[in-house]
Write a structure and sequence with these properties.
The structure holds two protein chains of two kinds.
Chain A: E1 2-8, H1 14-22, E2 30-37, E3 41-42, E4 45-46, E5 49-54, H2 58-73, E6 76-84, E7 86-88, E8 93-101, H3 104-121, E9 124-130, E10 133-136, H4 141-148
Parallel strand pairs in A: 1-6
Antiparallel strand pairs in A: 2-8, 3-4, 5-7, 5-9, 6-8, 9-10
Helix pairs in contact in A: 2-3, 3-4
Chain B: E1 2-5, H1 7-13, E2 17-19, H2 29-37, H3 41-46, E3 54-57, E4 60-62, E5 73-77
Parallel strand pairs in B: 1-5
Antiparallel strand pairs in B: 1-2, 3-4, 3-5
Classes of the chains: A alpha+beta, B alpha+beta.
Chain lengths: ~160, ~80
């Protein structure tokens, strides 16, 4: 089981990150990757950039706690989380979650679980930059609802046959 | 103890962190927010809608009824919008 959690200013390459996770291994049968990108609009209005502020120290700790929980819930063989901060331009990647398992079910579920929690619990805040100035992105209740569905008692670990 | 502020809470206060020594009667995160809001107009503005502000003690999310007695770092921030 290998886990990588990285917070960085620079862009990342999803293919490079997943290649690192699977290199030299023959037990991994499924890799799921999610990449969140910066759109050029917010509520239909064009934006110039996003700036992500974060709580250094807590962000790393909070993500690590959720990775730990994902590992206890599903039979994972690898987890990589990369989250950027600072100024991000439309089209650029913001966040990567990659999960590896011997079968797809665990990889899909764990990736979704981690993204849902990153959205609502990881201490990051997006500020939108438009021609008119800057404003803070408001949290969406749909994101809270998405995270909520994972708070039922953990299912038993199982491997698909 | 050290207080940290993020996003629009930080902007409204005009500072990212400070050290404070709240009076003995201030025992919980919620009471701390109420005490801060009474300091001056800027704090009142930052904490005017305390219900939406989230808090963390020593890098862990906490509810308003959490005790601050053993905290070394308390952070206040809006709901998170990462990912």
């Amino acid at each position: 089981m290998s886990t990588i959690v990285r917070l960085q200013r620079e862009a990342f390459d999803a293919a490079t990150e997943t290649a690192k996770m699977t290199r030299g291994r023959t037990d991994i049968g499924a890799v799921v990757t999610f990449t969140g990108l910066c759109r050029a609009d917010e509520h239909g209005e064009p934006i110039a950039a996003l700036t992500l502020e974060y709580y250094a120290g807590m962000a790393e700790a909070e993500i690590a706690r959720h990775v730990e929980e994902a590992v206890s819930r599903w039979p994972l063989l690898g987890v990589t989380v990369v989250h950027r901060h600072g100024r991000i331009l439309p089209g650029e990647p913001i966040v990567l979650v990659a999960t590896a398992s011997s079968h797809r079910e665990a990889a899909f579920a764990a990736a979704m679980f981690l993204m849902d929690y990153l959205k609502t619990r990881a201490p990051f805040w997006k500020q939108v930059e438009t021609v008119e100035g800057t404003s803070w992105v408001e949290a969406r209740t749909a994101d809270d609802a998405a995270a909520q569905r994972w708070s039922e008692p953990p299912r038993r670990r199982q491997t698909a046959k | 103890m050290k207080l940290l502020y993020f996003a629009w809470v930080r902007e409204r206060l005009g500072k990212a962190e400070e050290r404070i020594d709240p009076p003995a009667g201030v025992a919980t995160v919620g009471e701390l927010m109420a005490w801060l809001a009474r300091r001056d107009e800027q704090y009142a503005f930052a904490f005017e809608n305390a219900k939406v502000i989230r808090a963390a003690i020593d890098h862990r999310h906490v509810r308003p009824d959490a005790a601050i007695k053993d905290a070394s770092e308390i952070a206040f921030f809006p709901p998170m919008t990462g990912g």
